[in-house]
Amino acid sequence: MNKGRVTIPTDDNFIKETLEIAEKWGADGIRDCDGFKLPREIKGLAERIYSTYFVARGDNEWAEANREELQQTYLMTKHHVAVENKLTIKIMDGYFAEQVEPDTYHDIKTWWEVIDRTTNEVVPTENWTYSEESGEVTINNVSKWHEYTVSFLAYCIWDPTQMYNHITNNWGDKPHEMPFDARKPKTNKHIIEAMYNWLDEHPESNVVRFTTFFYHFTLVFNDLAKEKFVDWFGYSSSVSPEALDEFEKVKGYRLRPEDIIDQGYYNSPFRVPSKAFLDYIDFQQQFVAENVKKLVDVVHEAGREAMMFLGDNWIGTEPYGKYFESIGLDGVVGSVGGGATLRMISDIPGVKYTEGRFLPYFFPDTFYEGNDPTIEARDNWITARRAIMRKPVDRIGYGGYLSLAYKFPKFVEYIESVCDEFREIYDNIDNSKPYCGLKVGVLNCFGKLRSWQTHMVAHALWYKQIYTYLGIIESLSGMSLDVEFISFDDIKQNGVPSDIDVIINAGDAGTSFSGGEKWLDKEIVTTLRGWIYNGGGFVGVGEPSAVLEGGHFFQLAEALGVDKELGFSLSTDKYFKTPVEKHFITEDVVEPFDFGESQKNVYSKSKDTEIICYENGDLLMSANRYGKGRAVYIAGLPYSIQNTRILMRSCFYAAGKEDEMKKWYADNLNCEVSAYLETKKYAVVNNSNEEQTTLVYDGNGNSVQMTLDPCEIKWINMV
């Protein structure tokens, strides 16, 4: 068995058992966990010793002495209807008082905002007052039956990740860690000095695992200590008067609280981002990168490695942003929920290595008597493994408390096999790029900035409204396709990249992923129409190019061959409802179609539209020729092995390259082939828990039959 490329956690009084597991799993790295610090004697017991370091929390002595330098967040109250000429709003109603408290240190008339949500007008400051004693804003001269909200600046008095861990692990009287703000001058100086001190006090560690840096993603709890609002991409807890004043100097205009509050949506990634919000992202990323680099330089001066955890306080360090590589980090580690999140980590540019933290987390909510954590571990590994075959992380690991996992021998044995298989995959791929039959561009408002991160809310958690689309990214993560994420602004400024074969646009109307108002930009829409007409391929899922304008809901209706009925054109007859008898896209379909949440009222515009699936009066899948190009419409595409094949066939059909699909290809839906031409090897992978037999096609289209055991990978040398 090879060793290395694996990191394991440990905890109190568990060193002997930790070394036992390290030997069994071939681990060369040992890490601590939130709530536990490594003992000095750990030094030398593993090649890599990771110590977690919190830049902006974990020093309550500093936080208590400088409470005016705590981090801040913008919050909005509930909507309140005025039933008389005066309205009183208790601003903390619904918020957790142990996590946030109103900021009255700074001038509330400057930094707060009361809005008439019926008219969207800002209420003059002279018309409202705030009582610290009662925690209420009183608004005078209101308009009866109008709705009002208060946007207020608050201090963050308990870090939300530590709060979550505190509650989950029942830490009782453990101090609540208060986050402080690196943009405040005193604190900025303090965190650099603290970094030097910490390194002196932790000689046992040779890898500093920053968890993470300055600003936490938006995570606000309600008055029951339950999550109230969570946005893994949220910037609303990175605000402060100092930041907003500096923004005005740098960008030349002043932000309102509403630019952050955004009607209470807080600039969710599903919102089409405003120019102000994109400017604020850019502004904060530049500040964070410049200041994180100072910390990384200190770590390097001490002869240690600097690693960033992709989560918690990661705001401002988005790894596909334009400033990230300038930081000089050695590595990035992130939590792996499946293939999409694996690729989100493994594709990160500008670092020496990447590491995936696999599930389950060794916490008592999973590791308890009567539960089998092996089930979650197997599902997590098999799902992520598809993506590893395309672009592996350099290391894998686990988090939590090893003493809990140790009590489950079956789990320990299974993870041993995972570690061995990962090393086998990594060594066989040997940094070579796998064969890609096509290049696909995923088009949305964020493009490269949010590569492999579309339709995510709280990292990789499931939501009813997103699985229909997140499945596309999950499918792509393990396909023999080259994938690039492009934005509408990229199209406007530079056109469609010359090497793109197919563009995928997927999402609900009005969201940043479908595009919303971006489709009203004549340069964008005409560029894409022309590109498809001249031979490009387009795959639209859900409500692609959707915005009501010019007699269409789908602005690419003529290219797609379909549009969506909103009730405005019911007087126009729709004659075309007959599906084709068979189609290239659905040749591998063996089960009933699954369109997820699907769509209603999509209809064919022409007799030439190839209707592939029509059920209960709704067109659910179709294809259309548009000039020299082709477009495919699908009502929804949640992740499954069948939908993965449908998407692959849709891409090859849209590109007009059907004859090129069966290269390094398996005809069994449960199997996939990855070919590494540089190393002259290819792998046939069984993604199921059952034995599978498949025809395997090589790069010249020749086929051979193979049988694979459950979950097996066969490595074959090319002739």
Automatic annotation (TrEMBL):
Stated name of the protein: 1,3-beta-galactosyl-N-acetylhexosamine phosphorylase
InterPro entries on file: Class_I_gatase-like, Glyco_hydro_b, Ig-like_fold, Lact_bio_phlase-like_N, Lacto-N-biose_phosphorylase, LBP_C, LBP_M
Domain Lacto-N-biose phosphorylase C-terminal, chain residue ranges per copy: 664-716
Protein origin, superkingdom: Bacteria
Pfam families from the UniProt entry: Lact_bio_phlase, LBP_C, LBP_M
EC number: 2.4.1.211
MF terms (GO), sorted A to Z: 1,3-beta-galactosyl-N-acetylhexosamine phosphorylase activity
Leading EC class: transferase
Keywords: Glycosyltransferase, Transferase
Lacto-N-biose phosphorylase central domain segment(s): 439-659
The Lacto-N-biose phosphorylase-like N-terminal TIM barrel domain, residue ranges: 4-436
